[in-house]
Amino acid sequence: MVKRFIVTIIAGITIVGGTAGCQTAKPETVKPVPIKTATIRVGTLPVEDGLPIFVAAKNGYFKKNHLNVEIVNFQSALECDAAFQAGQIDGFMGDILGAALLDNAGNDVSIVTTVLGATAKEGRFAIVAAPNSGITTVDQLKNVPIATASNTVIDYMIHQSLKDKGFTPAEIQTIEVKKLPVRMQMLLAGQIKAAGLPNLMVVLAEKQGGKIIVDDTKAENLSQTVILFKTSFIKGDKSAIGRFLTSLNQAAAAINKAPKAYTALLVEKANLPAGLAQTFQVSHYPQAGLPAPKDVNRLLNWMKSNHTIKDDITYSRLTMEVKPK
After folding, report:
1. Is the pLDDT at 25 greater than 60, yes or no?
2. What is the set of domains in the chain, with CATH numbers?
């Protein structure tokens, strides 16, 4: 009995002593490392595809993620490409075809995310027939010159979608009209029978009597809008690019939750006519992620078959995975 009592006392002393030792030790204070604000210069065009970028700036998401994003607006993809090659911007919103052409010309470029077009339902390009053309079916487009601009995503959409519908190469005819406003004007005036147009112009053309013949949201996913940067810029501060993608994710979530709240911003930034603001259907925007390999490879194979790019341009060479931070 005495022995058990002594052991109990010794055990109690050990426990108390151990506890006292723990209480006197002070945990080391670890100061959080401040995140340095990074500056990113991003080129955009006045189109609905760039809405997440505009919302991220307007809602302060870039600032909250320690970014100073300078949005540089351009009126054409050619101007944007030229600024990128001249080092005036670090990255821009464009398409996969444009990225492949830049790579082919020896530019240091990597796609980091899709901003619109992760699925076929997001974003739209269409072949629209003129109001009095008499064209109402796809088959009536055989051997009809369709206005487009060569080496663009619309040009690719026209050729690939008609090929998928059984057209032979000889039956797919196009006519060069590079400037979209001129193309639209010629279509509505009946100077051309059909044209490839982006979503906003499709809506406007349809309201003025145009007929949608091919809608790429109802077939294979042929068009994606992406964001790309100089590869060296990404490697120089991958964390900043990750925070940029987080900001876009936050903006996409806000748009998808209340799309009508951002139609005024589309009027301001994306040339949406004020008269369409109440009825215009704002697109669904995806969370950050690379375009699907099959969609990219299909486009690259089309470009290679036209001898537009070299054979060594591949999906892995054209993309770089960066995780949102």
Report:
1. no
2. 38-120+223-318 (3.40.190.10), 125-218 (3.40.190.10)
